[in-house]
């Protein structure tokens, strides 16, 4: 007997359930599950993902036995429905849909009304007593089959041949909506569509239903490997070898007449999380019309007015499904002749804000579990709760000044101002073209808003780059809205009042015309659109936590945020620290829950005010004496900084990294500044230039920096150690606990650390003696040099802690400079080349993780209780955090704004969700 | 009972032997051994190295029981000699010498005539009936005791106070030699020496013999930690914690009169290896006079004329000792009243050439073993056999032209031309100051000859940097000669005819005056000195092997070289390959015994002739098409190169590395060359400059290079693969075996290799089809990126071989750029800082070795038969070769001239000698 590849679902005969996602895909498993819990679902069957895998592994051949199983199951379906596949007499029509293990919205192609040909169409007309409907179904089927199965889909920017025929007929007859077309016109469209197929493929349209089915199944398989699908999988880390299942389901018709309709809805508000039914439907339409955003649909609540019993079916299902799945559901339904069928249910996607609200409220309502909530919240998404909103006063003023030009759907919460861009593929270039230079002299790409009539999967890259998305058409579940919420982008969708002219590159509302490059501001929480730039204000969370301008009781978003953090803290095992170089940053991080500082970069302190002059004098000194004199000027400043940071951390551990960057970074970078510094310091220009020349390095990343500075200029380490311990002692005298951890950077050899440790401890002892007290402290090292990782057993003889500097460890471990890798990394990440799946500087690479693992293992072999943490930027990236959790580290450290992200990710890691 | 710290040696009572080096040091063990085999040795005792170790571990305190043991043993010595320590009546005087496990010539201080004071001196005068001798011994003792024990040694460049007194008296009295001084003058010197001691130390000279002994023992201990000793240990990798033994031995006197003398001699010629007694002696002198090189001594053979029976004692001892020790011996002897005593014997140091001759001949004479020979030959030294000699015609011409200005001792074979430098500490600066630019535009430090009246340990660094050393004074065993031979430097010593004026910075012979910076040429094999620069000719070995201008039977040096290689090949287990980029190099390496090519760098091939223009066109191409066109121009050239190299290797495996360096290295480096290339290629200057700008990298070491080029421009890999396989097929058609190993550089991730492997194999198949034949080949990778080392198991899924690129592995593993590390490495190597013992780019670092070990282990876990080799420069360095041997690699690859070195080192490694 051959392997089982086909699984049936129906109220009476049901072979699957929701635990069979791997084999049936998400959609198939849910269809079976819906049947299992008694919902009205059109019967059908699912061809397993294993069939798809077999197909690709065997040169696009079907698995042995699959054809027979499909045939048998079609026979069963005919029996169940009492209809006949490919027969004019009471014909059985089916939909063919993809459905993989992970949800991939908009990525896979769908075919409806399969089974039609001229004859069957007439049979359908007879059966439904509606030839117009039968013709409409037929022309839709021809288009979908032509586009998806026969590969006639027009290339990007070109007009689809079927759309062309449709528009042509509509134009000629003066019909506006598709529904206005009459039978004769539809007859013409059908006939011309068939001609188009003959012309494009050189063959007539396949009229045999079983041929159609076979071709459609293959097309679904093939769509697993189309570029959009590959792109999506890359973005969401879905393995290529999962494959997709194929769902073949009896058609029900939302377009049989005015007692028919179709809709998609969420059991809660996916934009705000509010516990209200949201969604849209269209009467006399097929499902794709809603999702595609071509016609603006009606709010789901309005169904209550049109067809109350159908609305009640939805409301009843909501209670059953939310309790059953433990999450807000995303439903697809079709009403055929007043009977409501469920076509799909799945956990609904929502904005990060909404996820939190849904999770916290469903928990309170007893509908879900803490784990489910943590599994549904995207850790990165929590940052959007911290994103600016428009400054309320500025926003009010803009309204009064008449700068509010339109209102659309609040499809992606948050506030965004940017320059108008109309074409996604130009987004990158425009951001560069309009780039501005910030106060540090760094070039910053321009902020942009993508403005489209509607978006499609081709726009994904442009949407990623934009601050926000504004669309003219489409509802809360349109492509733009779904993607924006998934990626945490600000989005106003379905803003019908605006008119977009791609040719002229303008958007206009009445007399207001905005050109490409003009500023526009959109409020994704209210749906408002403003001409010009609008000032922003801190998020509610920040107004409570940092600015204290809002009381928690008046801040519901903050309260839900706090509840989520409480949940995260309950499950996580990693401590979360922050990287902070100033007291204000430290204080903010503490507000966000940081349990210490994992990295204080002392070099940033040398750039402030006139310190840089002292620093430069130190670098230009030719004798140890002169160097010491300059360092003496720096000492009180460093001490102040440490004092402030220690104080802000209120007794929490603070890891201070000794001077790290090469000295040339501190010297003036151009002739003008050299001249200026020469004037300030009295050092001749040529001496400064000579020193700049001397300090030039071929590979500064691998040069004279890190502990190499401290080894060659021990007086720098002495000064820094003194500043740390004096500040700590001063605070302790004031009664505050201080716990400094002195971190030596760029150690590759135990002796380097030994050398620096000796200096630090000797200065500490001197200071303790001078101040008449002692404080506890640790001396440890960054592990960022590969040699250090593999000799960690030796280094741990000296180091009391390791902090993994995964940025540099990646640079050196991979032999890849972050300043230079832009030249080849895009190609490495290109799916056709397929070297890497993710940028190793964004998410911790497996090979670099192996270096960390070796260091952990070896470090512990010498010092079992060694303190282990991470201070590289990976410390704030969820997937990396999951790796650090598995490696058994004690903490991760990240920038203050990522502390909440890290708290959630750490909990998700502890629960095995990442 | 306390531990035994003191071991006696004498003809009758002997507690040690030569196997006790660890505890007695080399000198102590040999003294005992000499006693054991019946030689006449003045009796004494050895204080163990353990005493020294205890001393340093316990704050410079003696081990418990040591004082008692010393006292008891002194009593025994008094009994054995019948003399009394510290007693005027028949006084016992002793020498106190250091002696560590490893021989450290000239590095440790010695005290002679210990036991003297005013009274004892008079007793000695009476006993020897020679008050002049007693006074002379006394003033020597005072000087040595003052210098060494009381720390009065003058700082560098200053005049020693005792020498000052001596010179002062000599000057005043017009006496030339020390031996000319009379009793009254010596009385004055003694008296003024004691005053100098009182003045310098604030205390009178210690007159108690036992106090003197205690202080002297401590001084020997302390000298273990003096800077010279530490420096020497660093150079020779001797652990600090070995400690030194102290040898206390009854004095015998070479300066009792004309029937006395002292000498050092080698049982063979340490310069040439010839089986003739060599050495020097001085009558009426103490040992230090010979070694110090102050008086030019007489050849040891002349002793036969003066005192035939003493000479016969020496000759008899030679036979006994050579057979006993299996090596040429370095003897110290003293004749007291016609009786010859042996003071020391040890394996003699010799030039590399001499070592080989000695080894091969002693083997033939049945006096030694193959292992002993391999243990005595310094692998690095063999390169000196390959060093140029002066072109015989040019040398003859120079002689005729009267440019030969002097003749000294042939103390270090080889020929060297260079500019005169007088001061060692200026050597580095002068080499830079006079640096020349070679044909590749690279700055090359000037060649220099160090010219000194005599050398001392302070000159070591300068001697290392110089091409050769010329001294005015000192014999074949003077400091200059010993060091030169150990380090393989060309040296002419004791060239009395030259006059050196340090003030004027000139050397003159008659009317010929050479100034600092003038060229001079020295022949270390003949002792000749020539004014000006002399052309050189290839060594005898090369004349046989490469130039075929000499027949082996006429080339005794070559024959010994060949015998040594045969010996090495018998024991080694590592294969030796070569790094070669051209057929001529490949052929040379084969002559030197290379078993294949471990690294062919293809980029060098792109610089030749007009190829660079094609290469530049390729880089400047903006389309794949244009790039392919330029590559098409390069293809036949690369094919030719590979053809030549494969042919030269005659079927041996050849590892070809695909293009590695960043593209910007191939572009013109200055405006002038840009203009020139623009003219050649017709590409506008601004386009070239834009591309140069585009290709600029912040850290080129970590940039767009290695396989990253091949991944981003697959057409480059295609072209290179095509050139390789076409050349291989062409040769195979001609009947020659070819075995290419295609090596992908800078792989960090298995997918990079996978990507390149696919291209290489696909091109190979195409070429095989076109040519109608197949050849065997491998595809593998460099392991030079740390990530590759730790993921070697994954990489070995694709790689058929690993070749460790330890240069880059060190750069990345240590995070240290070779172009930049000069700024801190000297400090890292400084013994006072003590971070590293050796430069990791010269000798493989332990941490980098650990990365290699991981890669070996993991690579084998996936592919047990993976071929493993090394192609970094460490592949030619003996200590690194020993590490590679231990790591179980199959081969090392090095530059052709280092192939013989590697063969020996590999044998030494296999025998556990390294």
What does it look like?
The structure is a homodimer of 914-residue chains. By secondary structure, chain A is α/β, with parallel strands linked by helices. Chain A is built from 35 helices and 35 strands. In chain A, the strands form 8 sheets. Chain A has an 8-stranded mixed β-sheet with strand order 14-26-25-16-19-20-21-15. In chain A, strands 28-29-30-31-32-33-34-35 form an 8-stranded parallel β-barrel, surrounded by 7 helices. Chain A has a 5-stranded antiparallel β-sheet with strand order 1-2-7-5-6. In chain A, strand 28, helix 21 and strand 29 (597-601) form a beta-alpha-beta unit. In chain A, helix 13 (352-364) packs across helix 20 and helix 23 (624-649) runs parallel beside helix 27 (714-733). The longest helix of chain A is centred in the last third of the chain and has 26 residues, at 624-649. Chain A is elongated. The two termini of chain A are 39 Å apart. The mean pLDDT of chain A is 91. The interface between A and B is large, with 51 and 51 residues.
